[in-house]
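Students often ask what a 'structure token' actually looks like in practice. Rather than answer in the abstract, let us consider N-Dimethylarginine dimethylaminohydrolase, a protein of 309 residues. Its sequence is given first.
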Amino acid sequence: MDGMTTTVAATTGRSQRRVRPRHFLMCPPTHFDVSYAINPWMDPAVPVDRDRAYAQWSAVVAAYERAGHRVDRLEPVPGLPDMVFAANGATVVDGRTLLARFATPQRAAEADAHRAWHQRFGVLYGGLAGARLAEPVAVNEAEGDFAVLSSVVLAGHGYRTSPDAHAELAALTGREVVGLELVDPRFYHLDVALAVLDEDTDQVAYHPPAFSAASQRVLAQRFPDAVIADDADAYAFGLNLVGDGRHVFMPTGAVHLRTELEARGYACVELDTSELLLGGGSVKCCTQEIRSLPAPRTAGPAAGEGEPR
Ligand code: ARG
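Now compare that with the structural description of the same chain:
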């Protein structure tokens, strides 16, 4: 059986990897475009093939759904060409939602769409005890700069999210928030420099040169087992991935990173996001996670069902 074969393949790593079903919020690239440049990857002179972007985005959604994850759609708004990058709209940890406040005027109005979705469909109205929806004070670009782990939240700063926002997230969630300074404008968000492979076991991968020397020391100390992504991995946006405990949904082209992940027992699902890369984003940038309940420390249901192909 399919499931059997893949389970065997996935136990070549240190432990057997298991899927924990996730709830994601994503926004179709209906109005996707590169009409301004707010990161070094964007060039308004290069035309965008929106149909292709839509097909690539749909393949990401399909891969999540095949693996058993729930994907809710956020209604795209005309005139907001970066809305496909839904990770930037809000951070939800244990049913507590911190809305985004964007660093650039071009994206500011996206926050209203996210607020409206969270007010209507978010955890606050799911009847979850302790759920909260918080308005941001300082600039924060949500999961672009906040990496949620079971024990801690890693928080990027230097280009977009303000260090003041780190304290807001800590106050809202009660979690320790560890600041990491980004020093290379190509890695302007934390989620292009560091990936959460498994939120429940605090497994990460990162690209050291994206961080200041002090932040590299923090990472090396806290994550001695981390996977290190090389230049080619990082430039291919290889770290802009989503892990569900067993699968790693990642952009194509991060050859060394993929080999490392497979050696640790992850099942890599490669997705072509070439069109979305024109906006400076890939798989993770398109994906906001709705974490309505505390993440369990141990594994969820057995993998093998709904295996993406
Ligand atoms: N063009 C968008 C920007 O520069 C891309 C955002 C990518 N999102 C992310 N989570 N890294 O804001």
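One point worth highlighting: The first strand starts at residue 23 and ends at 26. Ask yourself how you might have guessed this from the sequence alone, and why that guess would often be unreliable.
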